[in-house]
Amino acid sequence: MPSEQLDALFEELMDELWRQDPILATEVGVHAYDHLLPSIDKDSRISQRRALERYHGRLGQFKEDKGLTKDQKIDLKLVLNMLETHFYEEDKLNHPERSPTFLPNQAMGSVFLFMIREFAPLRMRLEHMLFRLQKMPRMVEGAKANMRLGGESIPRLWVDMAAEQIESGEVLFTKAIPVYAGQVPDIATDISEQAVRAWESLSGYKQFLIDEIASKANGSFAAGREVFDHMLKHRYMLPYDAAELKQIGERIIAETKRDLDSVATSIDGTRKWFEIAETLKGNHPLAEKIKDWYAEESAKLRKFIVENKIADVPEGETISIIDTPPFLCSTIPYAAYMQPAPFEKAQVGSFYVTPIDTDLPPKEQDEQLEGHNRFKAVLTAIHEGYPGHHLQLVCANRVPSKVRRLFGDTVFVEGWALYCEEMMRERGYLTDQRSALFQLKAQLLRACRVVIDVGLHTGGMTFDQAVDMLVNVARLERVSATAEVKRYTESPTQPMSYTMGKLLIKELRDEYHKKMGPDYRLKDFHNKLLSYGSLPLKILRDEILSP
């Protein structure tokens, strides 16, 4: 049967992907490769590419097959598109040889997963951690060889970013892992020793970047207009090019600024919106109560979306409010979310909340607290938890298709979370005008990201100009704006995904409403939208609006 043959081929491909990237396998809940690390040297990468090209050819033979189910046709289109964009972007962007940050991200994530996910007995997870720690120096040498090949094409900014990331990992390898391993005394010493060796190897990589790479790293971080437009059209299946995207971003910035002025007038007609926002930052929980506040708010949000028929919540899910791991605090100033593994039974999402650093001077501690002010924090809880990322991703993790559990579309995922911020205001959860002010402030930031994303990667904006825009328009603190723009340089098209996804979801909702007429129910739309997995919105639109 053609359908059975295709399903078997999907299984083969996914297993190939997990063999090539054992860290990804652990992340998604496939644990046959937990003891391994990826081979990242050039010969291995060539071999891996050829294997994927063979799968692409075999899968392509099913494109005209009439015996496939509707879901298989969607999955086939998704997988072929994923492979084709992967090949194109690998050739054009060449991140393995141009991105010094790849190694520290992989190294830290590869072992941290064993600490944050309790998918197996502690001893087994620690044994696999030990295997990976032992293999880490070899991966470091592979990364050095890649960077030598990249040479002048590497952006100097990315070298500096990699050095910063490596520094932030010291606490993981020299403190957190030894303490965690201490729960199993008979292997704790071996793990601690290997963790120190792994850290020494990473430190050597940092010194290598400084001594051998930094002086000749002269590449541009800009993806270029051709690549940017290709990503929009093929990776996300969007109907816009870079120029049209910029116009949309500029329009939303202007509209949002007008709305902010209107809300500010309703609160206090004597002050600008950003002046009002500044004074409201002092309304926050006590430092020792921040996690409790997010937990209580998440519980209220979950209850609200159920009682007000906004969406169904799958059985068995839960969200855990935990301290941000110390080695991530430098890149997560306030909060973040880690989804449950799609191939594991337990569906516990991790909602990171960065604690106040009591070693900082009092003024800086106060600034950290202001980032958790109640009017901003409720939006964070919506975006990261209910009905944002957590709800959407646990729904995606339970779709029957294994293909859709593995592959997701950033525009839909981030667009949904931003859409939820506005939708919850529309549905009456955010009734205070002060909350409306912060919702619009967050919307303004995401609109600025669209313009900056296009500008940075198609040549219309420098790094400093991007930072200035976030400071002067979105009203971010300069240190936060600088950190934001650093991230944007490495991820062309990701910054635009929030706003563009939200716009497309709202357009789809309006079309669905028109189609259903008097039978329209918001809950039905949301349930239907979330039932397909994290598909590109073009595919979702075709499915939801089909007769």
Task: Tell me briefly what this model is.
By secondary structure, this protein is mostly helical. It has 2 domains: 2-213, no CATH class; 242-511 and 518-530, no CATH class.
Task: Describe this protein's structure.
This protein is mostly helical and 547 residues long. It contains 25 helices and three strands. The chain has two domains: 2-213, no CATH class; 242-511 and 518-530, no CATH class. 68% of the residues lie in helices and 3% in strands. It has a three-stranded mixed sheet, with helices on one face. Helix 9 runs antiparallel to helix 10 (185-213), helix 12 packs antiparallel against helix 20 and helix 16 (374-384) crosses helix 19. It starts with a helix and ends with a helix.
